[in-house]
């Protein structure tokens, strides 16, 4: 199971009082992604506010997503728990409910050293047969993993088979490609770096953008893969400002505001996260008007 | 209630299988701190692995600490929850059990903007009458707060009355001092910057060092406050390598290893954190032999 | 005069005692570049050790280069003087001897503010009719210019017409492209970012690599421009390690060592710069054996 | 010859047209420093715009300063030339004219490696018997030297006997002190870090502040050395805003504006440097009104 293409990230809709997950609305967000021709769905990533869910909410979202997608495309479940014990617990649950891939990041309070990270990944790998996507995102997770170290984990840890790189440094991808002789699949996790990541050999692009702009990310992916470089450049620059905006404004807040603007009210993000303020909402409205 | 002097940070002892908190041993660690002449106890900070405890464990540690200290010195309770709802829940609990101060940091997965942080602090302040220490530690919490912004919170949020600065940048303290005309108390949270922080006007030093080196931090504090600058310099450089070591090795791992070396077995840190490796343990042993 | 394609950077050969420039050998280096099918020659850039030349040496190199190239392709002359007066003096000289473009960077001891940089560029622009390439390379020049600011200079300063971006941050190029609506030409100055820069719309690639690996940079440029993306990727990764090596080892030292390995002895770099040490020389030898 | 106390840095006055050095006015600036009770004079440092002087101007300033001071206090001459040959040339000149100490920094266009820096210092050391102050200021010189490396140079290079640290990171000073067991003298080169540097054991403070605020830096130095820590703190915070201002505004521009405000017209800085703008001048005026 290696992923390729567009990996779509749904947000997690909440009830009006912000106190519970609204699964019905989650289904509608998944419908939006499917219509946008994503090649896989990844629940409980950054966009899904996984860090802000209780254990039972997390499990509801995971289970609902797998059932709702129902095998039409692969389902990735994000695991970013602070303790190894809880990460193992969540990974086992993902396996039990029939998910296809675990996306595992070393979210941490302390800076972890490489021995600690390695051992964390190994424990999760030993607990389920699911393939693991190593997810490097220091700006959210507080821990940075070098290409060399992630490839060492791919080598030594049975189920660790692919890498999602979100530092925003294209050189990391060049290193992964060169050091693995092109053999370890890597995915782009930095929206506004999609063009160069795909040109550098990324097998996929992990993004919440299809929640709002349909199959435009998929069109960009296809153009690069077909060698239509001028078309790819045009498609990328068309989306560029939007892609940068949803990252810099906070994915959950931005995508939820955008969905509301498009008639899909899914509630605000969970506090301390706040919805976009009015001026940001207007900027987003303007961008969507041009894009969609 | 403004804190001054040495604020001692206990580690949180675990059972042998790492699965539960060992409160008896926590009492012994608190005894070590009291013997080291600390002026307050701060449970559930970074050294206390608060981020890795379940809710019930967290509450046990908080309650036990307050009861065990029993009014001899003030008790600070660290609150670093990911959601505002949970931070409020924990802060209320701290108040109910009789804690004296809440140390509140904006631990986060997403980068929070200032509006989100402000609102988070305000919610906690509105939920209890306890004084709040604003705690800035971007390397663990993933969020950096400027002196200007923290002073704005002191101004506008009723219970926010003091600041713990842990960036390791002495200029932040100079800014706090100048901008507040010396009126807002600030505490040092960066061990190997203690000498300059105290000379710059810090009213206290938050540290787990007294778990291992007795009242030497207190002696340093006293020397600075008495203007014995040559003595202060000597005391500081004596402790310097040790202070830097426990920070760079991870406070919980280092202090727990040190306690074991001194005959106080308190278990290892919780995974993904690992105990010090042998070479680090030997380095620590050497440093303690010279210091204690 | 807008440049496109491969802008080749010759090194500046010195005599054996390092005390004077060897113009004969410079001619041979230019021959190597012409044979490598470069589209322009840029003398007195970083690779040319311009910062380490006396005024008379600098003028010799500039004049010799223009005469030797003799109109076959455009000649760019790098100007990176510390004072505005000297930058104007050098720019005028470049014009007098018949150069085609001035590449101007704000080399500085102090951090310059934007007003100071603007005024520096304006003074040079007012002194000659030559087009100016704004060159941003904070790691050598100590000053960083944002895309917004450089575009402001293109707007307001008559002869400032194009930008060479060397920060290594692909987002800068995206910003230049978007903010100028694709109308301001920009060139890539970061060797190991060539693939993504060209895909992002760079009109050229400034590089000393053709001194050692022939027309492989030109082949990469052509492949991208023809939309042969798989071929471009293959060509890029073939050169990647080499491109990164010559940057991280210091361009002048690396290229001079490489030329000597290929039978073109051009002397060492000027002190404090030292030639590559033996292990680096051997690494380079191995890379060249695979590439050429 | 080890320096201690306040090392005063004169600016270099220019004629009205900015084209030549005004030595008479330089004498007046030196008088101001002597009246401010500095313990040594350091000409041709950052404040002295040494990087922007021609060779003959540089030599005039060096010679004039030594003659004018005439043995009343030691004279340090800053050497920050791009080539080793020129650094040796300048160092020899400093010796010939009777200077007491050379302050040597590895100003560079390329990032130099440690072997290159070591060899640069060694060449200068071999060329004169004068003691060398190793000067680390990455923000102007583009090269950063670790405490470990600088101490290695003190060990291995005959005349390298002391260190001026200007990174603004107090930990560097702690490292120098600890690693050298307090035996290698170090001086503070970061104005707004003076209090902690002196408390950390710095033997001196290199500063242009006495050009404008008299003996207040000297008073601060004395208070720290006498252990009057409350007085030292008060004196430091009184100067703090001013010290930070002259650094962030550019030393030459700020000090020259300040001298003009106090009736000592010394011309503007040399382009590309510009004089302070009106609002900055007004801020400086306000600060000087409070301080002097």
From TrEMBL, chains A, B, C, D:
InterPro entries attached to this UniProt entry:
Aldolase_TIM, DapA-like
Enumerate the active-site residues: 135 (proton donor/acceptor), 164 (schiff-base intermediate with substrate)
Keyword Lyase applies: yes
Any one GO biological process = N-acetylneuraminate catabolic process
Q: Which domain of life is it from?
A: Bacteria
Q: Which UniProt keywords apply?
A: Lyase
Is Iron among the key words of this record?
Answer: no
Similarity comment: Belongs to the DapA family.
Q: What is this protein called?
A: Dihydrodipicolinate synthase family protein
